[in-house]
Design goal:
Number of helices: 17
Protein name: Actin
Number of domains: 3
Distance between the termini: 11 Å
Shape: globular
CATH class of the largest domain: Alpha Beta
Family: Belongs to the actin family.
Number of strands: 14
Largest sheet: 6 strands, mixed
Mean pLDDT: 86
Function: Actins are highly conserved proteins that are involved in various types of cell motility and are ubiquitously expressed in all eukaryotic cells.
Strand order of the largest sheet: 3-2-1-4-5-14
Low-confidence stretches: 1-17, 60-68
Pfam families: Actin
Length: about 375
C-alpha cells in the first residue's frame, strides 16, 4: 500500500475528497478516558465524549476502560451509532483506532462484534500511533503515545509498524494525575486537598508543565492560583513542575521503572542493533509525542535533551522531537485520512472476507 501517494497530495489544511465508499466510513478513536467519533474525510471529529459516559448511559454502573474489555466496547459502539451519530451501522464501514493493550484475542472479539452485532460493511483496527503519524503527512517515525491508561512507543517505517520493537512505559496520564493529587494533598496548609480525579486532571492540564531545569524552576518560579469550582483559590507552586518531572524521574511514582526518554532510547538502540543505521536514522529524524500527555509545555524540548544524552553523536545530531499539529485529535484525523486512501478497501476487512475466514481474518490481513 502506497500511503505516500495520499499524504503527499494533502495540503496542510485540506484533506483530499474521499471516494464515495469511504464517505460513509465512521472513524472512532476509542480512548481510555475520551472517545472521538466522526466521518472519514472530515478534518476533526464531530463529537468527543468521556468513554465512561456510554457506560453510565446504559445504566450498567460500570467505570471500566472500554479499550480493554470487548463487552464494554460493544456498549460504547452502540451508544455511538444510536445516540451520538444517529445512524444505522449496517450502512457504514468502521475504523477504530486501538491502543497497544488491545491484545490479539480482544481484536478478534471486536471484529466479531462489528460484523455480527452491528453488521458493518468493512472494518479496520489500526494502532493509534500509526494514525497520529499519518495525520502529519509522514509515514516514517517513532511515535510515543502518552495516553491516560497506556504509554508506549512504536517505530513505523514506510507506513507500517515494525513488529517486535514496541516498548511501553508505566508512566501514564492516570498515574500522573494520581501523583499530582498526592502532591497537592501533602502540600501543607497552603494547599486545598484535591481528591476528585477529574478536577485534578483539569488542574494538571492547565497549570503543570515540564521544567527545562528542575532546580531553577523549583527555586525561582512563583506560585500560580487556580480557582476551584466552589470559588476557592488553590495556590500551586513546585507541584506544577514535580508532576511532569515524573516522566523523566520514574522513581517519583511507585512501580514505575523507566522514564519516557529511556523507553525511546531503548527502542532506538534495538533498532540500530537489529535493523541497521539507515532505518534507524530515518526514524530518529521524526520522534513524535502524541496523546493527552503530550500537551505539557516544554515536553518536546526536554525529551530531546534527555534522548540525545543516551544516543551516540551520529544519531543525537539528527533527532527531531515533534507533536502533531492536530494535538489530541491526531489519531482520529489520521484515521480519517486512511479511510480516504484509494487502497483502503485492500487493507480493511470486508463482510465477505469475515464470512469466509471468521474473526481470524484480522490477524491474516491487518498490517497496522
Amino acid at each position: 500500500m502506497d500511503l505516500s501517494t495520499l499524504l503527499l497530495d494533502m495540503s496542510d489544511d485540506v484533506l483530499i475528497q474521499p471516494p464515495s465508499d469511504s464517505r460513509k466510513s465512521v472513524v472512532i478513536d476509542l480512548g481510555t478516558r475520551y472517545t472521538r467519533v466522526g466521518f472519514a474525510g472530515e478534518q476533526s471529529p464531530c463529537d468527543v465524549f468521556p468513554t465512561a459516559e456510554a457506560q453510565w448511559h446504559s445504566q450498567q454502573g460500570q467505570d471500566e476502560y472500554a479499550s480493554t474489555y470487548p463487552d464494554a466496547t460493544e456498549t460504547v459502539l452502540n451508544y455511538i451509532f444510536k445516540n451520538k451519530l444517529g445512524i444505522d451501522s449496517k450502512d457504514h464501514s468502521v475504523l477504530i483506532g486501538r491502543s497497544l493493550p488491545y491484545v490479539h484475542q480482544n481484536q478478534e472479539k471486536l471484529i466479531e462484534i462489528l460484523f455480527e452485532k452491528f453488521q458493518v460493511h468493512r472494518a479496520l483496527l489500526p494502532l493509534n500511533n500509526a494514525m497520529s503519524l499519518f495525520s502529519t503527512g509522514q509515514i516514517t517515525g517513532l511515535v510515543m503515545e502518552l495516553g491516560a491508561g497506556t504509554s508506549y512507543c512504536v517505530p513505523i517505517y514506510d507506513g507500517y509498524p515494525i513488529k517486535g520493537f514496541v516498548m511501553s512505559s508505566e508512566v501514564t496520564g492516570n498515574k500522573l494525575t494520581e501523583f499530582f493529587m498526592n502532591l497537592l494533598s501533602n502540600g501543607g496548609n497552603s494547599f486545598t486537598p484535591v481528591r476528585d480525579p477529574v478536577l485534578a486532571e483539569t488542574i494538571k492540564e492547565n497549570v503543570c508543565s515540564v521544567a527545562p531545569n528542575l532546580f531553577s524552576a523549583l527555586s525561582d518560579s512563583p506560585n500560580v492560583v487556580y480557582k476551584l469550582p466552589d470559588g476557592t483559590d488553590l495556590s500551586i507552586g513546585r507541584e506544577r513542575y514535580q508532576c511532569a518531572e515524573a516522566m523523566f524521574s520514574p522513581n517519583l511514582i511507585p512501580c514505575v521503572t523507566k522514564s519516557i526518554p529511556t523507553v525511546l532510547c531503548d527502542c532506538i538502540t534495538k533498532l540500530d542493533s537489529l535493523r541497521g543505521r539507515s532505518c534507524t536514522t530515518n526514524i530518529v529524524k521524526n520522534i513524535m509525542l502524541s496523546g493527552g500527555g503530550s500537551k505539557f509545555t516544554n515536553l518536546r524540548e526536554r525529551v530531546k535533551i534527555e534522548v540525545d544524552k543516551c544516543l551516540n553523536e551520529t544519531y543525537a545530531s539528527q533527532t527531531l522531537v515533534t507533536t502533531p499539529p492536530a494535538g489530541i485529535h491526531s489519531s482520529w484525523q489520521g484515521g480519517s485520512i486512511l479511510c480516504c486512501h484509494s487502497n483502503y478497501n485492500d487493507v480493511s476487512i470486508s463482510a465477505e472476507e469475515y464470512q469466509e475466514h471468521g474473526a481470524n481474518i484480522n490477524s491474516l490481513k491487518c498490517l497496522f
